[in-house]
Design brief:
An 8-stranded antiparallel beta sheet has the order 11-10-16-7-8-15-12-13. It has a 6-stranded mixed beta sheet with strand order 2-3-1-4-5-6, with helices on both faces. Strand 28 and strand 29 form a beta hairpin. The protein folds into 5 domains: 178 residues, P-loop containing nucleotide triphosphate hydrolases (Rossmann fold), CATH 3.40.50; 85 residues, Elongation Factor Tu (Ef-tu), domain 3; 72 residues, Alpha-Beta Plaits, CATH 3.30.70.870; 106 residues, Alpha-Beta Plaits (2-Layer Sandwich); 112 residues, 2-Layer Sandwich (Alpha-Beta Plaits), CATH 3.30.70.2570. The protein has 14 helices and 32 strands. By secondary structure, the chain is α+β, with helices and mostly antiparallel strands.
């Protein structure tokens, strides 16, 4: 059992690409946790996608035994956190398991939107935040300007540690500062067990592997534990710590972080953020801060080849064991066949899940346009939650529609102010405030409908700011909006997979673009085809796809004009009959292209 006064639990928080994973690599190297021969870049990021994109997706923990220069021995638990806004819930859970955080800021880029968001999260849960200024060896670094921004935006007055994580310069100072500045955990090893689950993963052979931080008491092998929110009971088969490989131990006591395996086969019977207690000594209340992760963006996922439907079901079941933060239900589309409707924490989360389904399970998929959850009140006063445009009530029955809003924080260079503000104005943004971080950089806050963010907003923001703007957002609830259902009719038949919920002011523009795009992509038929966009049952845009023409009079050389007229009339009758009974095949590319239509015409 380790003396709690010798333990330091800390996290590293940073904006994407500011050097968080590289600093973690140097700390593991310096403490001898990983032998130099086993070292590789981004060692904490084990998933192929994490390494490829340079982002952390899953929270992780690693234990380091540190022998300080004065001969004292310390136990350091690094609890790694994702940096992207979609994974804020994972960040908050990881921070709740720590007493301190290293705030890594890139000296060449300064404070960014997610630096700000994650640092504020750390301050809210009462962590000691230590500023670490990275990349000081680059010619374009501005250490004094970065220091000023940290003080102005976050009011942090601690002396920063200046480092280059890549070369290792100054990293020894980070270890000394962790030991000196971060408080020791306060837990009592003799008290009843209370432990926080800050992450989970799934092993085919062992079942659910839980990463836990023991707050009070001692977690032992063979103990019967109970999970507070689900009341599930289980016997602990193995406990241990990560270095970063699993190393079993007899106990995990107050202040320590590690893993526990209970042979649980269903990941949904335990929840990240829940409290673990001993069955024989139950707790009166759970550890604070637990909340369920709620999906905010929904999309339909369909196999291009319908024979892969069973393979898609298997893939979703398996992936959901590793990532329980997305949910899915079966759905059927007249146009796309059988598939699933998935709920995600955000757009990056959706992109990661789609990419993992395609890569790890070798599936060809169509993903419908992402949409958000609307609240709809019908004339009888009842409210219902709608996550799929196809389920929208008939427009005559709707009394009110509410859509979710987010508070948007964007950090950008002042020269791109006008372009970014115009983009937010186009997207129905509501002004909240502006702050100037330095003579060249500013921070703007706007309230924005979430639906406007899910259609190419991030890409457009990067485009208009030449890649310099960074954003963070969090939900602020629902507001009433003038929304309506836009339907696409091809040959008078509604195509459910192309339905969208749009703001009435934008309906005509979106409808006209959709019709024009579909006209390019649908093959000509033997008859004329009408492609229409309809809002609340009223056609607002139309394109006509002309019929294929066969020259039926080509073989008439001379002769009476009535012969030609007879052949042309016969062709006209045939086309009329074909039009009445004909159906139009919509190619898969039409769905893909229609989904990629950017509302702003870029």
């Amino acid at each position: 059992m380790t003396d709690p006064s010798r333990i330091r639990n800390f996290s590293i928080i940073a904006h994407i690409d500011h050097g968080k994973s590289t600093l973690a690599d140097r700390l593991l190297e310096l403490t001898g946790t990983i032998a130099r021969r086993d070292m590789q870049a981004q060692i904490m990021d084990s998933m192929e996608l994490e390494r490829e994109r340079g982002i952390t997706i899953k929270a992780k923990a690693v234990r380091m035994d540190y022998a300080a220069p004065d001969g004292q021995k310390w136990l350091l638990n690094l609890i790694d956190t994702p940096g992207h806004v979609d994974f804020t819930y994972e960040v908050s859970r990881a921070l709740a398991a720590c007493e301190g955080a290293l705030l890594v800021v890139d000296a060449t880029q300064g404070v960014q939107a997610q630096t700000l968001a994650n640092a504020m999260l750390a301050q809210q849960v009462g962590l000691r935040v230590i500023p670490v200024i990275n990349k000081i060896d680059l010619p374009s670094s501005d250490v004094d300007g970065t220091l000023e921004q940290i003080f102005d935006t976050l009011k942090i007055i601690e002396d920063p540690v200046l480092i280059s994580a890549k070369s290792g310069e100054g990293v020894q100072g980070v270890l000394d500062t962790i030991v000196r500045e971060i408080p020791a955990p306060k837990g009592d090893p003799q008290a009843p067990l209370s432990a926080l689950i800050f992450d989970s993963s799934y092993s085919t052979f062992r079942g659910v592997i839980l990463l836990v931080r023991v707050v009070d008491g001692t977690l032992k092998k063979g103990m019967t534990v109970k999970f507070f929110s689900t009341a599930t009971e289980a016997v602990v088969e193995e406990v241990g710590f990560l270095k970063p490989k699993q190393i079993p131990s007899e106990t995990l006591s107050a202040g320590e972080a590690g893993y526990m395996i209970c042979g649980i086969k269903d990941i949904h019977s335990v929840r990240v953020g829940d409290t673990v207690m001993e069955k024989l000594r139950p707790l009166a209340a759970p550890l604070p801060g637990y909340k369920e992760a709620k999906p905010v963006v929904f999309a339909g996922i369909f196999p291009i080849d319908q024979t892969e439907y069973t393979a898609l079901k298997y893939a979703l079941d398996k992936l959901n064991l590793e990532d329980s933060s997305f949910n899915y239900t079966a759905e059927t589309s007249l146009a796309l066949g059988f598939g699933y409707r998935l709920g995600f924490l955000g757009l990056l989360h959706m992109d990661i899940v789609k990419e993992r389904l395609q890569r790890e399970f070798d599936l060809d998929l169509i993903v419908t346009a992402p949409n958000v959850v609307y609240r709809v009140q019908t004339m009888d006063g009842k409210w219902s939650v709608i996550d799929n445009p196809a389920k929208f009530p008939y427009h005559g029955e709707i009394k009110a529609i509410e859509e979710p809003f987010v508070l948007l924080t964007i950090v950008l260079p002042i020269e791109h102010q006008e372009a970014v503000l115009n983009l937010i104005k186009e997207r129905r943004g509501v002004y909240v405030g502006i702050e100037y971080l330095s003579p060249t950089r500013m921070l703007i806050k706007y309230e924005l409908p979430l639906a406007e963010m899910v259609v190419n907003f991030y890409d457009r923001l990067k485009s208009v700011s030449k890649g310099y703007a960074t954003l963070d957002y969090h939900p602020i609830g629902y507001r009433e909006s003038d929304m309506a259902k836009l339907e696409v009719l091809i040959h008078k038949e509604p195509v459910d997979a192309l339905s969208q919920i749009v703001h009435r002011d934008k309906a005509y523009t979106v409808g006209a673009k959709l019709c024009a795009k579909l006209k390019e992509l649908i093959d000509r038929q033997n008859f004329e085809v009408a492609i229409q966009a309809s809002l609340n049952g009223k056609v607002i845009a139309r394109e006509t796809l002309g019929a294929k023409r066969k020259d039926v009079i080509a073989k008439c050389y001379g002769g009476d004009i009535t012969r030609k007229k007879k052949l042309l009339n016969k062709q006209k009758e045939g086309k009329k009959r074909a039009k009445m009974i004909g159906s139009v095949e919509v190619p898969q590319e039409a769905f893909l292209a229609a989904l990629k239509i950017d509302e702003d015409g870029e």
